[in-house]
Design a protein that fits this description.
The protein is an alpha+beta fold. The chain is 14% helix and 35% strand. Strands 1, 2, 3, 4, 5, 6, 7, 8 and 9 form a nine-stranded antiparallel β-sheet that branches.
């Protein structure tokens, strides 16, 4: 039996227009605040998201979180090159939407694994 549509809400979305949508779950687990810069990294078979820098003032830094809506708990990040890389490496859809795992520490940084085995965006195609 194959699911027609998933009822699971992804935690992070990489959009073809360069927007990254971070749900309130991701924001809460990592403690991301507006103005923090995120980074995505690979380590062997895992992909992680983490806070690269807090309250960035330098306009040349990419990946700075901005509030999408004044009352919402989720944040948006504008990073076209990262979105293109993630979407093309996945190759299952024109966007990428994933769940995240449990946070843990690597090299003194709190990281959140991005579960890339299943692209929820591909289910709607």
């Amino acid at each position: 039996m194959n699911q027609i549509v998933s009822n699971i809400k992804p935690d992070i979305k990489f959009m073809p227009n360069g927007d990254i949508h971070l749900t309130s779950k991701v924001v809460s687990l990592l403690g991301i605040q507006e103005g923090d810069a995120i980074q995505v990294a690979k380590d062997k078979d895992e992909t992680y998201i983490y806070i690269h820098a807090r309250q960035v003032k330098d306009k040349n830094i990419t990946g700075i979180a901005r509030r999408a809506n004044k009352s919402a708990g989720y944040l948006r990040v504008r990073w076209e090159s990262l979105c293109r890389k993630i979407i093309s490496s996945d190759g299952r859809s024109s966007s990428a939407a994933y769940r995240v795992g449990d946070p843990h520490e690597i090299d003194g940084r709190k990281v959140l694994p991005i579960i890339t085995r299943k692209n929820y965006a591909a289910e709607g195609d």
